[in-house]
Amino acid sequence: MSECLFCRIAAKEIPSSMVYEDEKIFAFNDINPQAPVHILVIPKEHIPSITDVKDLSVVGELYNVINKLAEAKGVKATGFRVIVNHGKDSGQAVPHLHFHLLGGRHLHWPPG
Ligand code: AMP
Ligand code: ZN
Predict the structure, then answer these.
(1) Which of 12, 18, 82, 104 meets the CB 3.0–4.6 Å disulfide criterion with 37?
(2) pTM of the predicted protein model
(3) Atom 20 of ligand 1, residue of closest alpha carbon
(4) What are the residues whose beta carbons fall under 8 Å from the beta carbon of 28, sequence distance 6 or more?
């Protein structure tokens, strides 16, 4: 059994509020949402961070799902933000690549 939290969520060993799943990608609501829409979109494959991506096609798959979800959640028209944290200064807390999809309110810029 994996010790990675997001691997375990993708394998449904740990429950989550899932919003999308296909062969390669899993998406679920963030447990501590920072906006009305706050979804984490992850590869099922364990990739620790954006700097560890070897097969760039996975990034395209993630963006394809992000666009589908933005439309499904109604934020494509109003606007949304996609964030990937890497490393200590960004506050990355979970070492499994995840794209934050945030929307449903005005998002301040620049982020803190
Ligand atoms: P990051 O700081 O980019 O690593 O983001 C990690 C995100 O994972 C945070 O926004 C957390 O709220 C979220 N998170 C942590 N544990 C869970 C969980 N069990 N289910 C859903 N989201 C989680
Ligand atoms: Zn993992």
Answers:
(1) 104
(2) 0.98
(3) 31
(4) 9, 16, 17, 18, 19, 39, 40
